[in-house]
Amino acid sequence: MSLIAIAPMHRLPLLVGVALCGLVGAIAIVRNSGVSIRQPDAPTIAMRELVFLDRSDGSVAVIDYQTGHQIDAITGESGFARGTLRGFARDRRARGIGPEAPLRLLARADGRLTLFDPTTARIVDLESFGPKNAAVFGHLFEKN
């Protein structure tokens, strides 16, 4: 029995399966090729270096790295901010890096915000989590 002789109703699932295997194969090739599928970043129009330090009261102090002054504090639940910072802290701990080195908050010409750790090369495009979550970090540009 050849492939052509298969009844039309049995051919459709077979073709869908072959197409799905081809798609998965193409994805694997792109991922393993090292080619970046990230959209190129727009130029940086503003940058602020920030240090985030856990405090004994459960808050997180936000320190301007250039001045050494605390410009804000993350208190309460603040799920998105704490979750994002936890990811950076986990990467640093795995490499034996402490919290003293600053993270860079970058404002892009296209309005996007990026949080970047130069010590680990970890990048989080904050706008990908929605404008409200990006604003959690975006307001830090106005703080003195």
What this model shows, in words?
- With 144 residues, the chain is an alpha+beta fold.
- The protein has helices spanning 8-33, 79-94, 131-138; strands at 44-54, 60-64, 70-74, 103-108, 113-117, 122-125.
- The chain has a 6-stranded antiparallel β-sheet with strand order 3-2-1-4-5-6.
- The longest helix is centred in the N-terminal third of the chain and has 26 residues, at 8-33.
In short:
The protein has 144 residues and is α+β, with helices and mostly antiparallel strands. Helices cover 35% and strands 25% of the residues. The protein is built from three helices and six strands; from the N terminus they run αβββαβββα.
Keywords:
six-stranded antiparallel sheet; single chain; elongated; 144 residues; alpha+beta; 2 domains
Order of helices and strands: HEEEHEEEH
Mean pLDDT: 85
- Strand fraction equals 25-35%
How many H/I helical runs?
Answer: 3
Instruction: Count all strands and give the number.
Output: 6
User: What is the radius of gyration computed over CA atoms, rounded to a whole number of angstroms?
Assistant: 23 Å
The largest sheet, given as strand count, sense and whether it forms a barrel, is:
6 strands, antiparallel
Estimate percent helicity.
25-40%
Q: Between the first and last Cα atoms, what is the distance in angstroms?
A: 77 Å
Number of domains: 2
Could you list the spans in which at least 5 consecutive residues all have pLDDT below 50? Answer: none
Structural class: alpha+beta
In which order are the strands of the major sheet placed? 3-2-1-4-5-6
The 3D shape can be described as elongated
